Amino acid sequence: MADDKPADTTPAGPPSAEAGDIDPRLLEILVCPLTKDTLEYDRQRAELISKKAQLAYPIREGIPIMLPEEARHLDDDA
Amino acid sequence: MPLPPKLFDRGLLSLRRNRAVVQKSRDDFLLAHASAEFGDRLGAINRVFEHCLAYNARNGVLKQALQASGKTGHIIAADCSAAMLAGPRTQGLLYDEEALPVAGGRLDLIASAMSLHWANDLPGALLQIRQALKPDGLFLGAMLGGDTLHELRQSLLRAESELTGGASARVAPMADVREVGGLMQRAGFTLPVVDADRLEARYDSLFHLIGDLRAMALTNIMLDRPKTATSRALFARAAEIYHEDFAHADGRIPATFHVIYLTGWAEHESQQKPLRPGSAKQRLADALGTVEHKLKE
Fold first, then answer.
1. DSSP conformation letters of A11-59
2. What angle, rounded to 10 degrees, do the helices at B206-215 and B232-246 form?
3. According to the model, what pLDDT value does residue B74 have?
4. What is the fold, at CATH topology level, of the domain defined by A24-77?
5. Which of B243, B233, B245, B158 is nearest to B208 (CA)?
6. How far is A33 from A23, CA to CA, in rounded Å?
7. Per-residue pLDDT tens for A15-35?
8. B12-39 tens-digit pLDDT
9. CA Rg, chain A, in Å?
10. What is the DSSP letter of B275?
11. Which residue from B minimizes the CA distance to A3?
12. 3-class secondary structure, B208
């Protein structure tokens, strides 16, 4: 189980209603469903990254898709 | 630890729920029933739950019922189906209940309606829910179990054995109320309560029932379900048997839905607990005004 250290997320930037934007209250509690580790929020690519699982979970229309089968593998980087 | 064999195709569940969204004209009466029940149960609790998660996003029914209780703060709507979550206000969380993406001890309330009956690993799902709750956090669950759809199960079984001499997995196995109680304890919930409600729906025919099940995304997702299309003859015979064996006087057929309600708390020091054995400060005999006889060794 992950400990309680805060996730290092939310890069500074002007607020806008982009597809990759995510409710901060949601961001605060999310972890990787596989490893239960904290996630990094990549606002540009609209992804939540689990370093340990080597997966990037997509955010579609503000909804984090926390399914490993929908996630991008970090090694097959575009 | 070896994992138990998988019963359900979780990917197919998402597809079925996506498809069920199209049938907007139909209400999910089971979801409505469970949501209202959750609202009632919250209404009876004298506190406000600040951070909440509501699993089953269909038409916002569950979230609205929780809000209407006046006992909830911020509610995250969640589902395994993107189509169920899509709406004018795009906010929500998509995940599979078997892999909860929430950090330990973050939520005050988790409500799961009409979904846990599809879990391959119910003990694991319950454990993850309990771990995601803050101390004194509450879990409310509703799932199908018991003898749900027993009429349909029997009719299909008889029709299939008559026509093909065999039987295949057409109605999912259901959890038993007592088993679920044990699982709640195993998952570490305090003050667990499990009870059940029996609902009977009436339909004109087996085909109307199956249409409704499809609209509620309750059709078969078992991994070893028959993969070839089921013959019309089988359904036609099953419909006859269903009618002969179960129809009411008005000619309509009943379908039983057994909803199991799960309630449990994450441990907190303020909760009532049994005293340790041997820690009594008064003798039972004194309280009863009688004489205590020692047991002979």
1. --------TT---HHHHHHBB-TTT--B-EEETTTTEEEETTTTEEEEE
2. 110
3. 94
4. N-terminal domain of TfIIb (2.20.25)
5. B243
6. 18
7. 444 556 788 889 999 999 999
8. 888 888 888 766 556 799 999 999 999 9
9. 12
10. P
11. B104
12. helix
B102 Cβ neighbours under 8 A, 6+ residues apart: A29, A30, A31, B53, B132
Q: Beta-carbon neighbour count of residue B280 at 10 Å?
A: 10
Contact between B117 and B97 (Cβ < 8 Å):
no
Structure tokens at B247: 């129809």
What is the amino acid identity at position B258?
H
Q: Which CATH architecture group holds B10-149+174-202+255-268?
A: 3-Layer(aba) Sandwich (3.40)
Contact B222, B208 (CB under 8 A): no
Structural tokens at position B53: 């998660």
Q: Of the candidates A1, A60, A66, which has its C-beta nearest B101's C-beta?
A: A66
Query: Domain residue spans in chain A?
Result: 24-77
In this complex, is the C-beta atom of B107 within 8 Å of any C-beta atom belonging to chain A?
A: yes
Place of tokens 């029932």: B209
ipTM: 0.84
Q: What are B159-168's pLDDT values in tens digits?
A: 999 998 888 8
Provide, as residue numbers in chain B, all residues whose Cβ is less than 8 Å from the Cβ of A31. Answer: 101-103
CB–CB contact A36 B51 (8 Å) = no
B18-32, B73-87, B229-243: least confidently modelled range: B18-32
